Amino acid sequence: MFRNTARRSTASESVSLHQDQALNTTIFLLKSFGPTGFLLREDGEVGDVRVSLGDPHACTCPAFTKEQEPCKHICWVLLRKFRLPREHEYSFQRGLVDRQILELLHGLHQTKGQQAEDGTLSQAASGPQAGRVCRRPIQAQDVCPICHEALLLEKGQPVSHCRFGCGNNIHISCMQVWAEYQGLSGGADAVKCPLCREDFCSLQLLREQARNAAKLFTGSEREKPNRHLGVRCQGCRLGPVTGKCFKCTVCSYFYLCEDCVKKGSHPQHPLASRTKRMGTWHLVPEDPKDEAPGATSQSADDSIVPAAAQPLPQYVLDRLPTVRVKPGSLLSDVGQQCRICLLEFSLGQRVRTLPCHHKFHADCVDEILRKWNSCPVDGYVLHNRCARRRTGETKPSPSGADANPPGDDLKGLFVPGVALGGRKPGVAPGGPPRSTADADPRTEERQRKEPAGNPKGSSSPNKHGAVTEIRGHPRPDLFVGGRRPEPRHPAVAGPSGTQPQKDGQHSRYKQATHTDRLGQQRNH
To answer: Which parts of the sequence belong to the RING-type domain (predicted)?
Structure first.
């Protein structure tokens, strides 16, 4: 068969790049011109482009006009609209002849399983209200007829359904673009379904759904893909990790940043890495030279590791806040729905909120969190080792090795005429060290109230309480105005060559005996 364009056996570099752009860009199908002509609008753009399939393909965008190669719009029609596999021969050709286009239109490139799923349509049942139909259940292979993206994706875009026609599900954001293209302005105007051409719903209801569905999106979804939300580096304790994130394949919930890995942190175990928080973990070669600069990780299946497949601990799952939908709750408004199953929150259902502020049915998200340690929408990591230590750390015990001795409190004490410098912490000037038990105020109070053996020879402090004689040596009394408690524990030898006192009780007995003798001498 005669061809206007040469046949290709492999995709060129530019076509492969455009295929990546097509799969990562949201494009809306606004209108069809026969079986091979389409009017498209890219998300965030104002102008529309027109694509025509043939030999060769054609597009009105500047990229195609300059390169004369299949642009991202042509690739989007082939990959999204007609669901061609990326490796299929027809997906990277500059044009298709009539026979190939007929095969494309009849879906001969699809497998038998895909044809069975696409051909199985559920009948629209009568709804609870007259003239309305029930919503069709969402299947795994269902796609939005406007953007042609799968409905049950990790994005979890809220959907609405055709209420007066086929009952099919369509993204709310796509229906807004569709209604804008139709030029509707009045709230009472009905939006036509792009599939059955019947009334989809009123424009006022669609706007209310869009307003309530906007509350389901959080700021974490607008973060850059290379910011690993919820991940704190175990080495430098900084977070969230930005750029390349590393994870130990042996230790649980152990994350590192690229700088700490370059410094040699955690060399005893193999690591896995990823660049995007929703990406796949790949094994890191032991020798960094094995990985060429600018090259991606190994593309083989054996390089993909189940490092991310760590369940959320049950005690963390139990602490996540859960509410039950009650009458009048904001969760029961139209447009409010679970981002996993895309079903509305009904009365009596339990709704669980994650730290990233996403809300899901508790039954839906618990099943995922028992396998994965991250939010299914934005990849927010819910638990890591640093977080566990922060929540479980306690203040050190005073009796520990790092505790300050009680004598350190004397460093800030100043008594006129008494020199405290040059003393060891915990050792009072001219005497043995004091223990923490001796500094108890209740012990001091009890010792004040004890009656002395002799009123004249009492060992209580004098009027000024500046000096107390013990064994003939004057010792400054730091506890001015109160009785100085004697030590009850063995201590090292004090200054002036005094021997260590083995027991504080024996010391008090000697002091009382010495005082009694002085009193007897005075009486004589």
So the answer is: 144-197, 338-378
